[in-house]
Amino acid sequence: MEKLIQAAFGHLIQLTKDYRDRNAKQCSPGVFNKAVVTYPTISPPKVREKIEKLVGKDGLGITNVQMAYDEAVSIAIFFLWREFGGDLNIGLESFKTRCRQDLDQWSQNVLVLDIGGVTTDLALIRLTLKEEDPFEPGEDRGDGERYYILTPKLLGSSGHLQLGGELITLRIFQLLKVAIADCLLTAMATVNLEPELLKIQPDELNVRFLENGKFVSGKLLENVDKENPESDRAAYNDALDAAEKLLPTHRNWENAPASRQQTFYSL
Predict the structure, then answer these.
(1) What is the rounded (10 degree) CA torsion for 59, 62, 68, 70?
(2) Is the pTM here over 0.85, yes or no?
(3) pLDDT of residue 104 exceeding 80
(4) In whole angstroms, what is the distance from residue 61 CA to residue 70 CA?
(5) Residue 160, beta-bridge partner list
(6) Per-residue pLDDT, 91
(7) What's the confidence (pLDDT) of residue 109?
(8) pLDDT in tens, 198-222
């Protein structure tokens, strides 16, 4: 795994070199000797040290590896660049209009939620813009330009090392599917929906979802809508199986009717 991560960093460095070669007039020549490497918000120091070694002098040959910013904070830095839009005059005034003012300073809170392919990173940052007078009394002020200091403060950060975009998408898909199935079974149990319209009957359900032979509203959903499905994997799987019988969407479509594929895309 370490070799794979190192190869990925090496590929990014090569892509940067290729871009510089294509835009030689816009970039400075020379060897890359400094790299700013981000990391998941809650990565322990040991993980950060490994990353630094993989990219550093004994790894990819980068002599100066900066590890000052986690992934959520780096997104906040990008947010700042976007706020100012490359124009410090208009950008500053635009930034101030979205802040709370307290005398000679303006502040706003930024909540960063970065959902990647593998990790989710969260940070709450307060940005404070303060106007200061850099001149001594009686000093020539020239054209009288303004002087600002922008100070970020990390109020809190968190994250999840094993919960990224694809897994979150899957969990949401499963939650929606089970919620619809639960609603249909509830409608059948309350005689608001004819049983023959559904592809599954109560006696085909696991007994954990029944009471006196009738479906208990919300039972499917409560076994899927939980933070840790592993706490009761059997109930979780039973709920998904019941939902699949009602709304067949699994991607084994080779010999399946076109309706299954359509159900998947509709959901």
Answers:
(1) -50
(2) no
(3) yes
(4) 22
(5) 120
(6) 79
(7) 93
(8) 777 777 888 888 888 888 889 898 8
Strand partners, 156: 124
Strands 100-102 and 105-115: antiparallel
CB 142: neighbour CB atoms within 10 A?
A: 7
- Distance, CA of 79 to CA of 71 (rounded, Å): 13
Q: Of 55, 62, 56, nearest to 31 (Cα)?
A: 62
Q: How far apart are CA 63 and CA 263, in angstroms?
A: 54
Q: Phi and psi at residue 34, in whole multiples of 5°? A: -135, 135
61 or 1, greater pLDDT: 61
Give dist(CA 55, CA 31) in Å, integer: 14
| Most distant pair of Cα atoms in the chain: their distance | 91
Token pair in block for residue 259? 């309706």
Distance CA 256, CA 205 (A): 23
Closest CA to 218 of 232, 231, 208, 203: 208
What span, in angstroms and rounded, lies between the C-alpha atoms of 215 and 7? 53
Bridge partners, 129 (sequence order): 106, 150
Question: Is residue 160 helix, strand or coil?
Answer: strand
What angle, rounded to 10 degrees, do the helices at 165-189 and 233-246 form?
Answer: 70
Q: What is the DSSP letter of 126?
A: E
Q: Looking at this protein, which amino acid is placed at residue 265?
A: Y
Residues 6+ apart with CB under 8 A from 235: 208, 223
**CA-based R_g, the chain, Å:** 28
